[in-house]
Inverse folding.
C-alpha cells in the first residue's frame, strides 16, 4: 500500500518539529521528508516523530556529483554524513540529485564517472541499511536516461527517487516512466494537482509500489487536502 509523506520544505519555515509532526498527522500523512542539513538535534527530532506516531520517509539532500574532480571528495563526505544522520533518525533513505552533463561530455561517460564516484558511498550506505535514492532533477530527468545512470552504478543500495513534476517538464508522462523504471522506483515525489498526479498514483499501484509518495510545493490548504484525495 502506498504511503503518503509531507515535504518539510513545503510548510512554513517557522514551524518547529513538534508543529510539523502535529500538522502532518492531523492532515493524514504517514510520514515526513526532512531536509538535510537537519534543523534541530537528531535525538530530539527522532523522539518527536516517535511520540507523534509518524515515520521519517527520507532525508533529502541537494548533493550532486560536482563537475570538478577535486570537489567530489567533499561531496561524498557530505553524503556519508547524511547517511550517518539517517541512521540516527531511524530513516532508511537518503535522497540525492542526478548530475548535469557538461559541454564536451556524453551522458554515457558522465554516468560512468558518477558510478565510479558514488560506489564507495553506496557501500557505506548499504553497511548501515540506508538506500541512496537518485532524483531525476538535472540531466537524467526521463526514465530511459535515469535507467542508464542506475545501470552504470549497478548497486543494490542505490535506487530511483522519481519526481513527477521534473519528468513532466521534460515531456514524459507516467505512462512511460513508471513501467520503464518499475521497481527501481524506491521513492516518489509530486507537487499536488489534478490529473497527472492521479494517473501517476494509478501507475504506481499497478506495479505494486508500496513506498512513499511525498507531497511538496503547495500552499497549506492544498497540503491538508492532498492526503485525503
Amino acid at each position: 500500500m502506498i504511503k503518503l509523506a509531507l515535504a518539510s520544505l513545503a510548510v512554513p519555515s517557522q514551524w518547529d518539529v513538534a508543529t510539523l509532526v502535529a500538522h502532518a498527522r492531523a492532515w493524514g500523512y504517514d510520514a515526513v521528508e526532512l531536509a538535510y542539513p537537519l534543523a534541530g538535534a537528531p535525538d530530539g527530532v527522532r523522539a518527536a516523530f516517535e511520540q507523534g506516531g509518524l515515520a521519517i520517509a527520507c532525508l533529502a539532500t541537494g548533493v550532486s556529483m560536482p563537475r570538478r574532480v577535486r570537489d567530489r571528495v567533499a561531496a561524498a563526505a557530505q553524503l556519508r554524513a547524511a547517511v550517518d544522520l539517517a541512521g540516527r533518525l531511524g530513516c532508511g533513505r537518503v535522497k540525492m540529485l542526478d548530475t548535469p552533463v557538461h559541454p564536451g561530455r556524453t551522458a554515457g561517460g558522465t554516468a560512468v564517472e558518477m558510478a565510479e564516484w558514488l560506489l564507495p558511498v553506496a557501500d557505506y550506505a548499504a553497511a548501515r541499511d540506508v538506500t541512496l535514492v537518485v532524483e531525476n532533477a538535472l540531466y537524467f530527468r526521463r526514465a530511459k536516461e535515469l535507467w542508464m545512470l542506475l545501470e552504470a552504478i549497478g548497486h543494490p543500495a542505490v535506487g530511483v527517487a522519481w519526481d513527477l513534476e521534473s519528468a513532466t517538464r521534460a515531456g514524459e508522462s507516467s505512462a512511460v516512466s513508471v513501467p520503464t523504471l518499475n521497481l527501481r522506483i524506491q521513492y516518489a515525489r509530486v507537487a499536488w494537482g489534478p490529473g497527472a498526479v492521479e494517473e501517476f498514483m494509478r501507475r504506481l499501484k499497478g506495479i505494486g509500489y508500496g513506498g512513499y509518495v511525498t507531497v511538496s510545493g503547495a500552499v497549506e490548504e492544498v497540503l491538508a487536502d492532498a492526503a485525503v484525495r
User: Anything to note?
Assistant: Strands lie at 3-7, 31-35, 55-60, 93-97, 131-135, 158-163, 185-191, 212-216. The mean pLDDT is 94. Residues 32 and 56 are 5 Å apart (CA to CA).
